[in-house]
Design a protein that fits this description.
The protein is an alpha/beta fold. Helix content is 35%, strand content 21%. The protein contains 25 helices and 30 strands.
Length: 716
């Protein structure tokens, strides 16, 4: 039967209305999952119990009422356990009377064999506003929400995802047996998860109409897993709408042949004028046009009243006009220009009226792809795409998709100062047409892009973004900076799952499933991209982990704490290496463990750092994955007179040794440096490609991003 038809019939025959949605009775949901291979308790009809020829239950029975107002049966006294066959009729009468006194009239009663017990779990599905369906696994029972010992993964669930979810959710140790109990059948639990959320599972069959699903508890034993309770909440069947699929090849977006700007003025300086100036500074002497109703020239740029009058046409139209006028400009160019960007605000980010304008804008753009509105647009040094004066012109391998225009400018300017070299950057604002997911998917096949960053506040195409993130896994590293990660959770009618699937947990689930690095600050975002730009090819040492080396006991402790926060392991130092360090005079008043404390400072020899590390690399191979060096800028002023010059000399000597290891450097207290020294240190970092950070957390998060990509690439 067609899934849509089956859905309509289920709702018509069994759906119980609840806040514009439909709740399916427990026995109907259990039949659905049983058809997919999930074990459920044996069921009886009241009339069958004790009847001639009927199977006699071998143990206790469970009685449940179902119907409107009975979503949480236990709270209303609509569940009775431990009944004998002869007690069922009286229990039904008592339960019906008690519920009637509470204003609830059951539609029917469910009688099942009582399970002897095991590890109680919750398995649920909720539809997140951004990423669609998520499956949740946790410890079940009545304390589920109180303890919140749960973890999530996005749907559809692969077998690897299902196995990892079983391994990492907070209740996992109980599955291996505790206090003499036997381990449960983990493979049966994996199969249950796949039956619900796998490629051909329950979620895929009901699609966007599945609002919530929950089995609580699922009981796991050495013999298998059984769903003792089940509920499902459905939305009405969606209307079938045809989608006009437009070209998603973004080549000319980042490298257009000709560009037009609508909104430049002949009498004042506007955003349009600034864009014309930026394009001219980027080298556009030919192929740049202004759209103006009367002028023939704006700021030295040829002007025409309509894109149709531009010889050879244009690939990219930038619209810098107030919202209502922007719609008219887009409508006049739609179908003639492959890509139109609307810089203007005043749309959905402002009000409900603005959301109406967005619908008008999208309709007006029919036949063209639309960026924005409310965005700065495109930056691509190789394609001479830009949105600011003085933008860097050297192309690189890092590409970024940003929802924010202002933050895009920060990423380009601050990233360039750190040594980032960009291939492409797209600011997409409200993203009513071109989305994060589309662009990310295209960048995965872009030969000029090796590392991808994403700034995201929300998206209309979370499912597409998730699909692209999963395709990136192990192929190109992706770093995501989230903005506005407050409460955006799915609309819960009453299930535990809806209240437990918070936005933060959903993002963590997506990251775990797709190998994404999540960061919390712009500094961490830029730091990760910078480190990956230098060390994307990876480094796998003989001993997993990080060696931390630097001066200062307290700072070393803080560095170890930062490693813990980033999930990094401190590499071990073996006895032979320790003996070599002692023979070099290290050890007095210092630590020969990891973190390794050595007196690097203004009066130490510039070779001290390299000499100390040389024994670790005596074999010419990498003894560990990464090395984190920390130096104290303040010490070079408190105890020296040459500023940061000795610090730079020490780092230069370290680099000349070409140790086979990735190196991250933290210069603590860098804000005490003189402007001249700060410029010298920044120039040294850019010229040599050495990633330098100002805090341990920036550095350790960056190292963690590289190690994560190492692991995901190896798994791929």
């Amino acid at each position: 039967m067609d899934d849509a038809l089956r859905l309509a019939e289920l709702i018509e025959q069994h759906g119980i209305p609840a806040e514009g949605r439909y709740v399916l009775p427990e026995h109907v949901v259990k039949d659905l999952i049983a058809d997919l291979g999930v074990a459920i308790p044996r069921r009886y009809q009241p009339s069958d119990l004790g009847a001639s020829g009927a199977a006699t239950p071998g143990g206790a029975l469970v009685l449940k009422a179902w119907g409107p107002g009975l979503l949480h049966k236990s709270d209303l006294g609509a569940v009775r356990l431990g009944l004998a066959v002869g007690e069922v009729d009286a229990a039904i009468a008592d339960m019906a009377g008690a519920l009637h006194g509470k204003g609830v009239t059951p539609s029917g009663f469910l009688i099942e064999e009582q399970h002897p017990g095991g590890v109680e779990l919750i398995v649920g599905v909720v539809r997140d506003e951004t990423f669609g369906h998520q499956i949740l696994l946790g410890l079940g029972g009545v304390t589920t929400e109180l303890l919140d010992l749960t973890a999530l993964r996005p749907c559809p669930l692969s077998k690897t995802d299902a196995e990892e979810l079983v391994d990492v959710f907070p209740g996992a140790p109980l599955l291996s047996g505790a206090r003499g109990t036997a381990a449960v059948d983990r493979s049966a639990l994996v199969e249950l998860l796949l039956s619900i959320a796998g490629e051909d599972g329950l979620v895929s069959r009901f699609g966007s109409s599945l609002a919530e699903f929950e089995c609580n508890p699922v009981v796991a034993t050495p013999a298998g897993v059984t769903a003792l309770d089940a509920r499902m909440i459905l939305d009405p069947p969606p209307s079938q709408q045809e989608r006009n699929a437009l070209d998603s090849d973004f080549t000319v977006l980042f490298a257009p042949r000709q560009i037009a700007v609508a909104g430049a003025s002949t009498s004042k300086s506007s955003f349009g004028n600034r864009f014309l100036a930026a394009y001219r500074a980027a080298g556009w002497q030919q192929g740049l046009f202004a759209i103006h109703p009367t002028a023939t020239e704006v700021d030295g740029v040829p002007a025409v009243p309509d894109v149709a009058q531009i010889p050879g046409g244009v690939d990219y139209l930038l619209v810098a006009l107030p919202a209502k006028h922007a719609i008219d400009a887009v409508a006049s160019a739609a179908g003639r220009v492959p890509f139109i960007q609307v810089i203007s605000g005043g749309f959905g980010e402002m009000s409900s009226a603005g959301r109406g304008l967005e619908e008008e804008l999208l309709t007006a753009a029919t036949g063209s792809r639309l960026l924005g509105p409310n965005c700065l647009g495109i930056f691509s040094p190789a394609g001479r795409q830009t949105f600011s004066l003085g933008a860097p012109t050297t192309p690189g391998t890092v590409s970024v998709i940003s929802q924010s225009g202002g933050l895009s400018g920060d990423i380009v300017a601050a990233g360039h100062h750190r040594g980032l070299r960009f291939a492409k950057l797209a600011s997409i604002g409200n993203a009513i047409d071109v989305t994060h997911g589309e662009l990310l998917d295209w960048l995965l096949d872009d030969p000029e892009t090796e590392i991808i960053g994403v700034y995201l506040e929300g998206t209309r195409d979370g499912v597409g973004l998730l699909r692209a993130l999963r395709r990136a896994d192990g192929r190109k590293p992706v770093v995501v900076l989230r903005g506005g990660s407050g409460d955006q959770g799915a609309r819960a009618v009453g299930s535990h799952t809806g209240s437990l699937a918070t936005p933060v947990k959903v993002w963590e689930a997506v990251a775990a499933s797709a190998g994404v690095t999540l960061v919390d600050t712009l500094e961490q975002f830029l730091g990760c991209l910078r480190f990956l730009q230098e060390y994307r090819t990876g480094n796998r040492g003989a001993v997993p982990g990080v060696l931390v080396v630097g001066a200062g006991g307290g700072a070393s402790v803080l560095s170890a704490d930062a490693c813990d926060r980033a999930g990094l392991t401190l590499a071990s130092i073996d006895a032979k290496q320790r003996e070599q360090l002692l023979a070099m005079g290290n050890g007095a008043g210092t630590s020969l463990a990891n973190p390794l404390e050595i007196p690097i400072g203004p009066v130490s020899a510039p070779t001290l750092l390299g000499d100390t590390l040389a024994p670790f690399f005596a074999t010419g191979t990498a003894p560990f994955d990464d090395m984190l060096v920390h130096l104290n800028a303040a010490a070079y002023y408190n105890y020296g007179s040459a500023g940061l010059a000795p610090l730079i000399d020490a780092l230069r000597d370290l680099l000349t040794r070409e140790f086979p290891a990735r190196i991250a450097v933290v210069v603590r207290n860098a804000d005490v440096a003189t402007p001249e020294d700060a410029r010298s240190l920044a120039s040294f970092a850019v010229d040599t490609g050495l990633p330098i950070f100002h805090s341990f957390d920036e550095a350790t998060v960056a190292i963690s991003a590289a190690q994560l990509f190492d692991a995901r690439r190896e798994r791929l």
